Fold this protein.
Amino acid sequence: MVWQFASRYFRAKKSTNAINIIAWVSVAAIAIGTGALIVILSVFNGFEGLVKSLYSSFYPAIKIVPASGKTLLLTPAQLQAIGRTSGVAAYSEVVEEKAVLRYGDEPTIAVLKGVDSNYNRVTDVKGNIVRGRFDIGDDAAYRAVLGLELEGALGVDVEHSMVPVTVYVPRRNVNAFVTPEDALNNGVLYPAGTFAIQQEFNSKYVITHINFLRSLLELKPDEMSALEVAAAPGVNQNELKDRLQRQLGTSYKVQTRYEQNQSLYAIMQTEKWAVYVILSFIMIIAAFNMIGSLYMLVIEKEKDITILKAMGARKSLIMRIFLTEGLIIAGIGTLLGFVLGGGFCLIQQHFGIIRLEGTSFLVDAYPVSMHLADFGLVLVTILIIGLAASWYPARRAAVEAISLKAT
């Protein structure tokens, strides 16, 4: 019965045309706000997915690092045990160190990353080669794969140049030296290829053979900066992390991909929630139209309310009728907003009508990704706002004493 009264009040023509106009203005405001929320949240999802895909090309699913210090030791027996761990698809030994590169006259600071032959089974750097080839060389001649921006900064032509890049790294355990050269080890790398993933990586990383760095840094054969691990398809990273942590003990720190980039992911989530809160406040402002519409409807239906009370209707029934009226307005606006927002996102996904300006982006148009959880969140938000906006007019209708003669 509550639904019948509420739906009839919404559909019926009012004596004052302004009530109908304000009601539909309220619906339109909620629809536009709902659509905007869906679009904005989907755009944030799109950018988040894009960033995660870029970082997953360089960062492994699991990374094992020392709990303290710069290097760790893993014996062949430990490596075999890690390889047999359920959920581990592959692993790669890695040594990282900052170095000075010299190609010509100008020195450039970069991060050298020495990897073994399993590296391409753990990450997808090879799939992001834009010039030359992925080749780290061997003990006869060590080669380098440079980031795109770093290649430009050095002035290297990886496809044609035969001139090596000279690498300088600090020597370990050197406390006294006569000349600066005595405190440095140096070697040469022959450029082989260029990768382009993300500016953070492109501008500072050089990938080479792990033996080259172990030799320069005077490391032991089992010594490394980290062990990068690829998870098997469908394996939960947190569960795999727990298994490896129990197996290795407290001398090692096991990190998931999220933990390797925790600050980045936290910032993205904070930005998304901040925008959601701001748009929700805008929806609250738009709900004032609904308050005015329902308040005028209460005045319009004074006679009906009096008759219902005379027939024995309780205050709770009157209140539920007008609360339901508010939910109808909010519900229609939400459904229209879902259609508008979802339709726009589908068009953007297929045709990319809103494009990113400039030529330095990896994508031409704003990426969007619709998540069912966002639709649920927006629906709950609008329903709460609708109930809150309807409460005062509904309460006024329920408690106010109305004289039939006055109507």
